[in-house]
Design goal:
Length: 190
Amino acid sequence: MMISKDEARKKVKKFRENLSGRDAELMSARIAELVTGLEEFERAETVYIYKSINNEVDTDKIITAALEAGKTVALPRVSGGNMNFYRIASMEDLFFGYMGILEPTDNPYNLVNTDEGIAIVPGLAFDTMCNRVGYGGGYYDRFLEKHPGLTTIGAAYDVQVFDGIETDKNDIPLDMVVTDKGAYYRPLLI
């Protein structure tokens, strides 16, 4: 059954508001285990990833695993309506920025702009076809449109995944969505 973006956002926001810290921690740990165990993660030299906020899936373990594996780890920084990714060497390279989100500095020497690697993408809701509902700014859709070679992975609690979500022409589906219960893969169209 198809659900509207607004209804999906409302349901997920309510779920996350009522999510206990312990449950979030356990589910996030399982998601991190599954993501870091993916062949795509193992092969990737570059990992684009976000720093979680507001009871999103905690990405710290994924970030730490990627750094320990010697991968280029890049986090987003929003400035002037654009989102660019900058390499970090540790979590200490992050500072409070746009909307109180931890971001890297905008050092041009740390700018990462490659189509090779993976992008772990946030979202409020997803569906079983790997469509994504974000927060409404379109930052990730614009970024993914410019980087079609990346393998894209949503990280979500399983309750954030619906049978179908309405989409529009600007929405870019992901390659997979990893949840605490497993993974959903976008079907290949032949």
